[in-house]
Amino acid sequence: MSKGIVYILYGVSGSGKTTIGKKLAKDFDIPFFDADDFHPESNIQKMSNGFPLDDTDREPWLQRLANEIIDWSTKKGAVLACSALKQKYRETLKSIDPEYIEWILLDGSFDLIANRMGARKNHFFKKEMLVSQFETLEKSEEGIVIDIDKNSDEIVNEIKSKLNTNKSQLGLIGLGVMGKSLAINLLSNKFTLSVYNRQVKGKEVDVARKFEEEQSNNGRILGFDDLQSFVNSLEQPRTIVVMVNAGKPVDLVIDALVPLLSKEDCIIDGGNSHYKATLERSNKLIKHEIHFLGTGISGGEEGALKGPSIMPGGSEEAYDTSGLFLEAIAARDKNGDSCCAYIGPEGSGHFVKMVHNGIEYAEMQLLAETYHVLRFYANKTPVQIADIFSIWRNNGLDSYLLEITSRILLEKEGDDFLIDKILDKAGQKGTGGWSTNAALELGIPLSTISESVMARNISGIKSQRVEASERYQLKKSSISSDDTVFVENLEKAFKATCVINHHIGFELIKEASNEYNWELNLSKIARIWTNGCIIRSDLMEQIWELFLNNNDTSLLMLPDIVTIMKSNISSLSEIVSIGLKAGFSLPVLSAATNYFLTYTSAQSSANIIQAQRDYFGAHTYQRVDTSLDEYFHTNWKH
Ligand code: 6PG
C-alpha cells in the first residue's frame, strides 16, 4: 500500500533533473534515484557501444522502475530523475495510485539547454542528440511545469510552492470536542486544513471524513483516516496540531508521525500534557530535527471555538513559523492583541498551563466555599446568591468563573434548583495535583492550590462523609438572611483570597523559571490570561499592568496590592473564624489566611521545628545572633 509520494522529475538531457532532484530529495528528507542506474545490462552494453536505445530496449527498464516506484511509495517516497519523454513511458511508470505520484517537468528552451550543456566541463555534447530529444518530448497535461531559466535554489523553491498549492496549511489530529472546535476556529480564520482521526470499530468510525462533509461549506478541509495520506496533504514544512488525551495517546501519535515527517516539520501538542513529558518528547524529536511546541490551551470547548488563551512553549524557531496559526485563532486582549505568545523553552508552556489550572482549582473551590456559607450559614437562596455575585462583579471582582457560577445558581429543573440535584463529589484530571507536586519538588508553598486539590479528594469519599456525619451529628449554626455585615465581610475575604491565590500561582511560575532558566515574563503570561481562558478576570487585567515593570517582585509586595490587602485582610480572618466556629469547612479561605499570616510574620514558629530536628537527629540549626553561614548543634539530652 502506498504511503510516501514519488516525485518524478522529467525532461530532456541537460534540464537539470539530477541537480534539482538531489536538492529536492534533501529538502524532503527522502531518497534520490537516477533512472539511468536501473538499466538492464543489455542496455548498458548497447549504449556503451554507441547505439541509441529503442522503445523495445526501454520496456524492461521502465518496468523495473515501475516496480521500484511501488517499493519506494510503501516507504517514505522518493525523488526520481528520469527523462520519461514520451507519454507511453510515463504510463508504464504509473504503477501506484496517481495520488502518490507528482510529475514535475523541467522545461527550458533548446538554446538555454544547449548553452548549458556546451558549457559543462568534460562533457561530450552532441547537438543532434538534443534535437532528437526535443522532437521526442511529449509534454504532459499532468503535474507541474517549471521553467528552468533560473538558478537551482529558485527552481527548487518554485517546485515546492507549486506542489504546495493543493496542500493544506496545517493539519490537526484528534477530533474530540476540543479538536473539532479548534478545527472550526482554524477554518473560520481562513486556513486550509487537513484533519485526521483514527478508526476504532464501533466507536470512532469515519470521524474525519464525516467532519470534512459537515464543514465543507466553512472552508477548505480534507479529512483522513490514513496517517500517511494526511501527512502528504500538508504544506512543508508541516505544522501538525495534536489534540488527543494527555499521556500515552500523545506518544503513540508522535511515534506514528515521526517516520512520515521531514526535517523542520513541527508538532504542536495542544493537550494538558505534563511539562516533564513535554521536555522528554522535545528531546526525542530534536534527534529527528523535528520541532515541538508543548502548548497549553485554555477556554474549554467554547474558547477553542471562538478564541482560547494559548500558551506555547518549546522551539522558538518553530514558533516563528507555526506560531502564526495559534496567534490567529486565540482570543484578543483589551488592546486587540492575541492572547497567544511564545512562553519560553522546553516544557514551560505546559508548566504555565498547569499553574493556570492550579489557580483555576483554587478559584473554583473558593467560589464553592463562598456559595456554601452564603446558602447554609447566611440562609440565602441560590437566586439571592446569584444577585450578590452580580453585585461583586460590578465591584471590580468580575471573572469568568464568578459569572458562570451565578448562571449555574439560576438553573432550574422543574421547581428545583439544578445545583441541589448535583452530587457533591468533585472529579479531576490531575493538573491541580501536578501543580502541587511541582511546588513540593521546588520547595515552595502552594497553600490555596494544594488545599483545593485536597478538598476535591475529600469530597470524593462521600460514603465515609455520610457515615461520619451520622456518627458525630455536629450542628452547624447560621444567621439571619438579613445580615448584611457578613456578606460585606465575605466579599472582602473573597477579594483577599483571590489575590493571595494568584500570588501563590505566580510565585510557582517564578520559581520554575529561575530553576530551569526559562526567563518567563509574568506580565506577558497574565496578559495572555486576560481573555479566552478559564481564569480571566478583572484581577488578571490588573496583574498584567502591575507586573509590567516588576517581573521580579512578588505580587503581594507590590504597593497597589499592599493597599488592597490592608483593607481586606481582617475580613478574611473574621470570615474564616466565624465559618469554622459555625461548623463549615473552608479549606481555601483558611489556607489563604494561614498563608498570608505566615507570609507577613517576621517571626514564624519554625524555630521550634529546627530545635526538634536537632534534638532527635542532630540536623543542626542557624542562630539569630550569629552569621547565617554558621550551623550549631546542641547536646539536648544532658
Ligand atoms: C481550561 C481548563 C481545561 C479543563 C481542565 C479541568 O483551561 O480550559 O483548565 O483544561 O477543563 O483540565 O480539569 P479537571 O477535570 O482536573 O477539573
How do the strands of the widest beta sheet line up side by side? 8-7-6-9-10-11-12
- Count the beta strands: 14
Tally of discrete structural domains: 3
Low-confidence stretches: none
Count of helix runs:
26
Identify every distinct bound molecule in the structure, by name, code or SMILES.
6-phosphogluconic acid
Gyration radius over CA: 33 Å
- The averaged pLDDT comes out at 95
Strand fraction equals 5-15%
> What is the CATH homologous superfamily assignment of the largest domain?
N-(1-d-carboxylethyl)-l-norvaline Dehydrogenase, domain 2
Shape: elongated
CATH architecture label name of the largest domain: Orthogonal Bundle
Q: How helical, in percent, are the residues?
A: 40-55%
**Distance between the terminal alpha carbons, to the nearest Å?**
84 Å
Give the biggest sheet.
7 strands, mixed
What is the third-level CATH name, the topology of the largest domain? N-(1-d-carboxylethyl)-l-norvaline Dehydrogenase, domain 2
- Give me the secondary-structure category: alpha/beta
Q: Mind telling me the CATH class of the largest domain?
A: Mainly Alpha
Overview of the molecule:
By secondary structure, the protein is an alpha/beta fold. It has three domains: 6-165, P-loop containing nucleotide triphosphate hydrolases (Rossmann fold); 168-346, 3-Layer(aba) Sandwich (Rossmann fold); 353-599, N-(1-d-carboxylethyl)-l-norvaline Dehydrogenase, domain 2 (Orthogonal Bundle), CATH 1.10.1040. Helix content is 53%, strand content 10%. The protein has 26 helices and 14 strands. The strands form three sheets. It has a seven-stranded mixed beta sheet with strand order 8-7-6-9-10-11-12, with helices on both faces. The relative contact order is 0.07. 6-phosphogluconic acid (6PG) binds at residues 272, 298-300, 356-357, 360, 427-429, 431, 533-534.
